[in-house]
Write a structure and sequence with these properties.
α5 (72-88) runs antiparallel to α8 (115-123) and α12 (204-237) packs antiparallel against α15 (297-311). The chain starts with a helix and ends in a 13-residue tail after the last helix. 76% of the residues lie in helices and 0% in strands. The longest helix is centred in the middle third of the chain and has 34 residues, at 204-237. It has helices spanning 4-18, 24-34, 40-64, 66-69, 72-88, 90-93, 98-111, 115-123, 130-155, 159-176, 194-201, 204-237, 244-269, 271-288, 297-311, 315-325, 331-360, 362-365, 371-384. The model has no long low-confidence stretch (mean pLDDT 83). The chain is an all-alpha fold.
């Protein structure tokens, strides 16, 4: 088994590889949408199916306490294998059948054993820098989510390459995670009491932390799901002659840097402060980016990169808040419940975007996403004033 440093590095690598499954079909379908072989609504449904599958998986995990009862390494590996198998089946089904939607649902359900479980394993290795540790894991998730766009941009219109490479990455994750050791803070629940978890969830500091997370999630995945289509529309208008797929990859991948940087800053200056700053910045980008094509490609790409950097930078800090506020034996379940609520909301915002785009045009559509960060800032400001916030980031709130 690997030691501390090796285990942490391997968790990050496995998170990157496993999460390539999330947007594998979305990135591959983007080329088909551009070629007119698939509608935007169909592409959105594929992403939405992953979100709903993830919600179903996290709810099942939360109700049974799987994340706190089973060996997280085996749960992660098994879930990744299931997701890889469902992803690989897309090579046979293509993108225009009901079976495709079902396979994406299964992939999302499987990822419920990857994302929150990876955060739990990472948090078990740290005593103080919880924000940096979980921020690194979320950065890995972000990088993994962005890679299918790179695979697709490099391979061109052949979506099969994107699916095949993302499946191979997931298999690497399933094998690698079994080599890690569990951290000293890992605690396995002897038995699970849902009433205990529900009572913890209803505590005001936990409610506010989750409210901030929901404000953040209102924006995040709708941005990730539709930024590629937006840039394909906006960049030519701004005079850009390059590949919009490469720009999309860079915009989403920038969030990996933002997640790690926000983790460092939050551990030093306070989680509520950093989450409020990140949401204010990302909300401002959402409200204005649609108006930028007339200003040229430079301004548009700069704001898109800032948005990609800040839109996910705060994500890990909401999870860190929950990990610090929850009882040790409930950390896995609390993180799972948090992500379940957030991703249920993302399904609604992703599916709402096509009619919003039709009604408002790309110039103003993303401004609707700024509502979430605005409400999230209010929630985190109120959490900052709670006495229990002294448990966050070693008292740095």
């Amino acid at each position: 088994m690997l030691g501390k440093a090796g285990s942490i590095v391997m968790i990050v690598i496995c998170q990157v590889c496993g999460m390539t499954l999330w947007f594998s079909a979305t990135a591959a379908a983007g080329a088909l949408v551009a070629a007119g072989s698939l509608s935007g609504q169909q592409a959105g449904l594929l992403t939405g199916a992953v979100q709903l599958g993830f919600v179903a998986g996290t709810l099942a995990s939360a109700l049974t306490g799987l994340a706190d009862r089973l060996d997280p390494r085996r749960l992660f590996a098994a879930a990744t294998l299931v997701g890889a198998a469902a992803n690989l089946c897309l090579l046979a089904t293509g993108f225009d059948s009901a079976l495709t939607v079902a396979l994406r649902f299964v992939t999302g359900a499987a990822l419920a054993g990857v994302y929150p479980v990876g955060m739990k394993m990472a948090a078990a290795w740290t005593e103080r820098a919880v924000g940096l540790m979980i921020g690194t894991v979320v950065g890995a998730l972000t990088l993994g989510s962005s890679l299918p766009y790179l695979f697709n941009a490099v391979s061109g219109i052949d979506w099969r390459v994107t699916i095949a490479v993302s499946t191979a990455c997931a298999l690497v994750a399933a094998a690698g995670i079994l080599a890690i050791s569990l951290g000293p803070k890992h605690m396995q629940a002897s038995r699970f009491r849902f009433a205990e978890a529900f009572a913890a969830l209803r505590q005001r500091p936990m409610l506010l932390a989750n409210a901030g997370y929901l404000g953040h999630m209102w924006e995040l995945y709708a941005m990730w799901a539709w930024i590629g289509a937006f840039l394909a529309w906006a960049l030519p208008k701004a005079g850009f002659q390059g590949n919009p797929g490469i720009v999309t990859f860079l915009v989403i991948a920038a969030g990996a840097v933002g997640s790690v940087a926000a983790g460092l800053l939050a551990d030093r200056f306070g989680r509520t402060l950093i989450t409020m700053g990140a949401m204010a910045a990302s909300g401002a980008c959402a409200a204005t980016i649609g108006l930028l094509p007339p200003l040229g490609a430079g301004a548009l790409i700069l704001v898109a990169l800032v948005w990609g950097l800040t839109v996910v930078a705060d994500s890990a800090q909401f999870s860190a808040c929950v990990a610090e506020l929850a009882q040790p034996q409930l950390v896995g379940t609390m993180l799972t419940i948090q992500t379940s609520m957030g991703f249920l909301l993302t399904f609604l915002t992703i599916q709402a975007m096509p009619p919003v785009i039709a009604a408002l045009g790309w110039e103003h559509a993303f401004a609707v996403l700024a509502i979430g960060p605005a409400l999230g800032v209010i929630a985190m400001w109120r959490l900052r004033r709670q006495p229990a916030a002294a448990r966050i980031a070693g008292g740095r709130r």
